[in-house]
Design brief:
Length: about 425
């Protein structure tokens, strides 16, 4: 049994006859289950709740959750790979005194009343940054949160998926067979709803066990800083030139070819948005790159390329060829430039040639951060952002000391606990003879 499991076993949690805990105070621990085989968790403790899809049902849920106590477990299901965008198609919540609720954001597109009812309440999410954007769209945003995935990373767990965490810490096995289904399906099948309800069944129990483990390791305050930063973060800025992230772009070199990728990507995006389907279902990235490399002269040439000929109608082929023809007609000045404009240091592989001294600083800094992350038993990227380390090493402060390096890290958004841990290591790296 690991130390984290020991922590859970030493807590007030207990197994109740192989069933999930009730909300009256009993809960789940990994101790009994981990002594033998983990226990499959097959049914929500109150059964599968009805899906709320109207204003009257939503009002009842709001009242129930406002009257509940303690943290609220929150999860959202999207239809990635099926629908355009990342909107939520099901929201699951659980809170002591309120039970579990399943809400259909298609029928109830504005959940701001629920978000307001849970203002000031700690929300427990797993991988919060994945769900917060789609929750924000429907009016739900926490002012306090606990991220069980991030907590697992900081605590040193090697596997931090929800299923692995519930099994390793609490001793229960969650069925994960429906994680990649089309959640825009209506009506939602009962097995999917069971899966969705079980995803929030033990989230608060997991939170409690991880809080104890982080406290035991002396990392709880670090985790709370991280959670506060996530809750306070503004919405992400729209990505510049998203078409440049087309898979296989590294094969495309010439500006006219880059223009074909851009035009096909943007045409595909408009069609996907209008049809509300995943862009990949309209045209694959591989097909876009094939067309860009070939720059076909007509529909017949386009149809001969991989991704265009198979079961694609004449009208569709003409639409894609028209996009290629638009690029052919563009003057050179309107074609995209190769590569994205860098806003930071060059790729590290180029440092040895561009600035050998900076390359030596980066090597020393990386070695120091790696050793410290191993000592603290957490991933390096959670100890300090690799991009922050690169930027610091490329342009260090004129005077390298604890105060100046701390100021640079703070300017790049590092949290205070990170600054306290890594500044001595980075000062040593920047001051080394290799620099």
């Amino acid at each position: 049994m690991t130390e984290a499991q020991d922590t859970a076993a030493d807590s007030s949690l207990r197994i109740t006859g192989g069933t999930p805990p009730d909300d009256a105070g009993s809960s789940v621990t990994g101790a009994s289950a981990l002594a033998g085989a983990p226990i499959p968790l097959l049914e929500p403790r109150e059964g599968i709740p009805p899906v709320i899809a109207d204003a009257a049902g939503l009002a009842e849920v709001v009242a129930a959750f406002a009257a509940g106590s303690g943290p609220v477990a929150v999860d959202a299901e999207r239809a990635s790979g099926y629908r355009y965008g990342q909107r939520a198609y099901l929201v699951q919540l659980r809170r002591q005194g309120a039970g579990t609720a399943l809400i259909d954001p298609v029928g109830c597109p504005d959940l701001s009343s629920l978000g307001e009812a849970l203002s000031g309440v700690e929300w427990v999410l797993h991988a919060a940054t994945q769900d917060l954007p789609c929750l924000r769209e429907i009016g739900m945003l926490p002012d306090r949160l606990f991220d069980t995935e991030l907590a697992g990373r900081l605590a040193g767990f090697p596997r931090v998926g929800l299923g692995a965490m519930v099994e390793n810490v609490l001793g229960f096995v969650l069925e994960k067979g429906h994680s990649a289904v089309d959640w825009s399906t209506r009506p939602l099948p009962e097995p999917w709803l069971r899966y969705a309800a079980l995803d929030v069944e033990l989230l608060v129990d997991l939170r409690d066990a991880l809080e104890k483990e982080l406290d035991r390791q002396g990392k709880l305050e670090w985790a709370l800083e991280e959670f506060a930063a996530i809750a306070a973060a503004p919405p992400a800025e729209p990505r510049k030139d998203p078409w440049r992230r087309t898979s296989g772009m590294h094969k495309v070199r010439r500006r006219r070819q880059l223009g074909v990728v851009r035009e096909l990507w943007e045409t595909r995006d408009r069609i996907a948005q209008r049809r509300d389907v995943s862009p990949g279902k309209v045209l694959s990235d591989a097909a876009i790159v094939e067309a860009a490399l070939a720059v076909p002269s007509n529909v017949h040439a386009l149809a001969a390329l991989n991704g265009f000929g198979h079961r694609m109608g004449r009208r569709q082929l003409e639409q894609w060829q028209a996009a290629v023809d638009r690029v052919k007609a563009l003057p050179e000045s309107e074609l995209p430039q190769p590569g994205q404009q860098l806003t930071g240091p060059p790729p590290p592989r180029a440092w040895a040639d561009k600035d050998p001294v900076a390359a030596a600083r980066l090597s020393a800094a990386r070695a120091g951060v790696t050793a410290l992350a191993e000592q603290l038993d957490m991933p390096q990227e959670n100890l300090i952002s690799p991009d922050t380390v690169r930027r610091l090493c490329w342009e260090p402060p004129v005077v390298v000391d604890m105060e100046s390096v701390s100021a640079v890290l703070r300017g790049f958004g590092a949290r205070e606990w990170q600054i306290a841990q890594v500044t001595p290591v980075l000062v040593a790296a920047l001051s080394s003879d290799g620099a």
